[in-house]
Specification:
The complex is a heterotrimer. Chain A is mainly alpha-helical. In chain A, about 80% of the residues lie in helices and about 0% in strands. Chain A has three helices and no strands. Chain A is flat and about 45 Å long. Chain B has one domain. Chain B starts with 7 loop residues before the first helix and ends in an 8-residue tail after the last helix. The longest helix of chain B is centred in the last third of the chain and has 31 residues, at about 105-135. In chain C, α3 crosses α4. The chains are: A mainly alpha, B mainly alpha, C mainly alpha.
Chain lengths: ~80, ~140, ~100
């Protein structure tokens, strides 16, 4: 079970990365990037790296998302 | 971004959630000695709780930490870390050699105390810096920085 | 088209990366270089030397405390740079007729 979870999370990370790149709306891209961070944290948990998972979940999913949203508010909000 | 959302439900739930996040941050920092966790993670959790309070309740006094307070924390963290390092340097050890700190205890216990001290420094610094970046990014500084 | 060219260039890079990843030691392999130099010393001596049951904390905060200090300095510098770049408030603009002598 655990052995299949790692590749599953990696696959979901790739899907999230491609989706975040292909989306035009920057706010959607940031949200998908938060999901990417969550899958990354889950992958670290599967790899028994709990410290890194902790940091990734807190920084990547919460703080970075908030910072990106604040930065997008200063721009037009659309990718070229 | 300057005005709060103004929903009583959000306000009440944020106020209910914040003390538990602070307690969890303290637990992560203190218990990081025995289990996964540490100063950086605790600081990020603390900063996340303060950012949540700012998003829901607006800046200023409602979120428990002003912009100037965040700047003070950001400076106090590295100062505490470096102060412990310099202190162990002046008490006969190397830089950041906590075992040399002049405390009336077993050297291993002194090392534990020193480690807790620098973890606290990391936590304060990370909290202050993250809240400060959020403040300047959201142009939320209440004229105090 | 630039997108097709990018994909064509990325495929050889992917092949090279997968080839290199196949050569990496297995996860938890005790004979890999990462586990043969200083890791045994930490595992044997960290608890009695630092009093920390968690080896990650022992290494991060004690053996490699200087690195952690530098890390905190980097974070502090990043916050300071953000404050200097974004936190500058525009001076209240004076009326035009006062600037001309």
């Amino acid at each position: 079970m655990i052995d299949t979870l790692g590749p599953l999370f990696l696959l979901l990370m790739v899907v999230c990365a491609v989706a975040a790149l292909s989306v035009k709306e920057l706010l959607s891209a940031v949200t998908i990037f938060g999901a990417f961070s969550f899958f990354s944290a889950a992958f670290f948990v599967v790899q028994d790296a709990l410290d890194v998972a902790f940091t990734e979940a807190a920084v990547g999913a919460v703080i970075t998302t908030v910072f990106f949203v604040c930065a997008i508010k200063r721009t037009t909000g659309r990718s070229v | 971004m300057r005005s709060r959302f103004g929903s009583p439900v959000l306000d009440a739930s944020a106020r209910l959630l914040a003390p538990f996040m602070w307690l969890f941050a303290a637990y992560v920092m203190v218990h990081g000695h025995d289990s996964p966790g540490g100063g950086f993670q605790a600081g990020v959790i603390l900063a996340a709780s303060i950012v949540m309070l700012r998003l829901v309740r607006g800046g200023g006094t409602g979120s428990g930490l002003s912009s100037r307070g965040a700047l003070t924390l950001a400076c106090a963290g590295p100062l505490l870390f470096g102060g412990i390092g310099i202190g162990s340097l002046f008490s006969g050890g190397n830089f950041l050699d906590y075992g040399a700190l002049p405390l009336p205890m077993d050297p291993v216990q002194v090392r534990v105390i020193g480690t807790l001290g620098i973890e606290a420094g990391v936590m304060l610094g990370v909290t202050g810096v993250l809240v400060l970046i959020f403040d300047v990014l959201a142009s939320w500084d209440d004229g105090t920085v | 088209m630039i997108g097709r060219l990018t994909v064509l260039l990325l495929i050889p890079a992917l092949v090279v990366l997968l080839q290199a990843a196949a050569e990496l030691p297995a996860v938890g392999d005790g004979t890999s270089p990462a586990f043969t130099h200083v890791a045994p010393y930490y595992l044997e001596h960290a608890h009695e030397e630092t009093g920390a049951p968690n080896f990650v904390t022992a290494v991060l905060a004690d053996y490699r405390g200087y690195d952690t200090f530098g890390e905190l300095t980097v974070i502090f510098t990043a916050g300071l740079a953000c404050l200097l770049i974004l936190g500058t408030r525009d001076e209240p603009s004076r009326p035009r007729d006062e600037e001309t002598p």
